[in-house]
Amino acid sequence: MTHNNQAADRLDYWRQRCLAKLGSSEETPFGPDVLVYKVAGKMFASLSVNTPLTINLKCDPQEAMILRASFAAVIPGYHMNKKHWNTIDLSAELDEDLLAGWLDDSYDLVVKGLPKALQARLGGQS
């Protein structure tokens, strides 16, 4: 498999993970190079399709600092509120389950900020 095919496969994998979230949608408000994932109109993730492939995820501020200190692939959110968002280099050697957990946490943080009736419709699922 060529490097470009691997990157395309990785992009597709993370697109599917984001779209699998209950009530999620994909948009391109910043142009074709950034895929934005929202639930109830609120962003929970964005994928930059440029090289390297990166994902922005919402994070508890305390946890965000811990992750940045623990993983070289995690930096303050690029073009985001750096207190609440991290950018993760998806080309780095990070455990897939760990990354999936971070995606779940981001989605859950956004859902918890929605009105209670909307939260109930989403079933509180990750």
TrEMBL record:
UniProt xrefs under InterPro entries: YjbR, YjbR-like_sf, YjbR/MT2646/Rv2570-like
UniProt xrefs under Pfam families: YjbR
Stored Gene3D superfamilies: 3.90.1150.30
Transmembrane region(s): none
Protein name: MmcQ-like protein
